[in-house]
Every structure is written in C-alpha cells, then in structure tokens.
TrEMBL record:
GO terms for molecular function: metal ion binding; trehalose-phosphatase activity. It comes from the Bacteria. Keywords: Hydrolase, Magnesium, Metal-binding. This is Trehalose 6-phosphate phosphatase. The keyword Phosphoprotein does not apply. Belongs to the trehalose phosphatase family. PANTHER family: TREHALOSE 6-PHOSPHATE PHOSPHATASE (PTHR43768:SF3). InterPro entries: HAD-like_sf, HAD-SF_hydro_IIB, HAD_sf, OTSB-like, Trehalose_PPase. Removes the phosphate from trehalose 6-phosphate to produce free trehalose. Its cofactor is Mg(2+).
Length: 261
C-alpha cells in the first residue's frame, strides 16, 4: 500500500476497529466456473479472511447464495466474527447460527414455470436455492443469446409469482422482493456503528452495495473484481478473486504496519 491510496482505505488502516469489510462471494472470492455447484473460494481466501477478521471491526459476506452455501463453499466457518448475509440480505449466518425467513409462496410457481420455459434447452441449468431459483446459461452453446431469449418470459413469470428478477453473469434469478445488497450492507453498517467501509464485488447485484458505500456518509472504498465479462466503475479495480485477496492481504499488512510496538 502506498501513500496515494484512496481516502477510504486510509481510514480503514488508521482505525481498523471501526472498519467494515464487505465482500461478495462468486466472482469476488470464488473464481467463476461453469457449474455453480463446483464453485469454491480461491485457495488463499480462507487464510486472508481469517487474518483480516482478527484486525478489523467486521468482515461481512453479502451474497446471492444461501448463507450456508457461501460458508461451505468458502470454508468460512473459522473466520473470526464473520457474518454472512445470504439471499441478498434475506438470511444471516453468524457464529454457526443461521437465521432464515419462511419460503416465499411464489417459489413453487417460479420453479415449475422455469422448468417449463427451459425444457429441452441445451446447456441451460436451473439452480434451486430453496428461497430463490436461478436459470443459468453459461453452459449453453450461445450463452448470451440464450439468456436474452429467456429474459422477457422470466420477467413475466416473476411478476406472476410475486418475485423479483435479479440479473447477473449469464444468470437470471427469481427471488423474494424487498431487499438488495445495498439495503443489507447499509443496515449492517448502522448495526455496527461503522466508521469506514470497503465493499468488493464483481456483478450487477453488487452495484446496490457500491451505491450504499457512496451514500452512507462514511469514508468508503468500492473494489471491482475485474474480468472480461463486465466493466463497472469503482475506486479500485483488481484482477478477479486473486486480486481481491491480494488487496485484503495488503490491507492487513498496512494495518499491522501501523500498530504501535
Ligand atoms: O452474490 P454472489 O455471491 O456473487 O452470487 C451471485 C450468483 O453467483 C452464482 O452464479 C455465478 O457464479 C457461478 C459459479 O462460478 C457461475 O457458473 C454463474 O455463471 C455466475 O452467474 C450463483 O450460482 C448464483 O446463485 C448467485 O446468485
């Protein structure tokens, strides 16, 4: 870290006890892979998070995954003080305890409708997350064209089922409305009386969290986990999960370098 680091990072390093480090999971901590069930955190991720978790006020994962899935795929159970806000803030995992709401009544309709819409489509996969359901086209012969063709019928199905459509990297997700990563992060910052914040993400669902960082009135830094799939403006752009974890380690180095004695 150098003297010309963004002000938000300077605030985190100067007062780590007041800092909240918010992180997305897929594409930010875990490299993007064709099969969602095969995603796993970058090998250096658990150690980096455990180290940072012992230095800052809080590390919070804010993800579209079920919270328990992120804990499992991220090998995160041992990270000190970690909170995982799953399903865009609908559920919360902390200290091994999961708090989750009842299943939305529209989910059964969405599940059946998506099966019908995608029957016979080559390479299209449905990911059933119990409290949300997603359709993935990454493994289709023409992933983007397949996603584009599904968009309108999926939007209509979501309206019928009373669900929101969450678009992402070659995925359309139907999920309960009323929350997003910005609301989830903002509520967490208030809960912890945060004095600074960093949020790192890689996908469209992370833009609400970037907006929350900019609007919260705290020294803050947005970090985009870059790839060839999407370009997004952020204070810092790093090279995928490896770059994010390198940054987290650099922050930890800088905090340890500031500590007296
Ligand atoms: O909020 P996130 O943690 O980033 O979760 C967003 C979605 O991520 C997953 O899908 C993405 O990653 C997959 C595995 O690398 C990839 O195959 C897929 O194309 C990506 O869209 C996850 O499967 C979804 O449920 C999440 O909503």
């Amino acid at each position: 870290m150098t003297a010309d680091m963004p002000d938000g990072l300077k605030a985190i390093v100067a007062d780590p006890a007041g800092a909240v480090i918010g992180l997305d999971f897929d594409g930010t901590l875990s490299p993007i892979v064709p099969d969602p069930a095969a995603a796993r955190i970058h090998p250096d991720g658990p150690a980096a998070l455990a180290r940072l978790g012992g230095l800052v006020g809080a590390v919070v994962i804010v993800t579209g995954r079920p919270a328990a899935t992120a804990v499992e795929y991220g090998s995160l159970a041992g990270v000190p003080g970690l909170v995982v806000l799953g399903h865009y803030g609908l559920e919360r995992w902390e200290g091994g305890t999961l708090t989750t709401p009842p299943v939305h009544p529209g989910l059964a309709r969405a599940r059946a409708g998506l099966s019908a819409l995608t029957a016979g489509l080559d390479g299209v996969r449905i990911e059933d997350k119990e409290r949300a359901v997603a359709v993935h086209t990454r493994q289709a012969p023409d992933p983007q064209a397949t996603l584009d063709a599904l968009r309108e019928p999926v939007i209509a199905l979501a309206a019928e089922a009373g669900l929101a459509v969450e678009p992402g990297k070659l995925v359309l997700e139907l999920r309960p409305p009323g929350t997003d990563k910005g609301k989830a992060l903002d509520a967490f910052l208030r809960e912890r009386a945060a004095r600074s914040v960093l949020f790192a993400g890689d996908d469209l669902g992370d833009l609400a969290a970037f907006a929350a960082v900019r609007a919260c009135g705290l020294p803050g830094v947005t970090v985009f986990s870059g790839s060839s799939e999407l370009e997004v403006e952020a204070d810092l752009v790093v090279d995928g999960p490896g770059g994010v974890i390198g940054l987290l380690n650099a922050i930890a180095d800088a905090i340890e370098g500031e500590e007296p004695g």
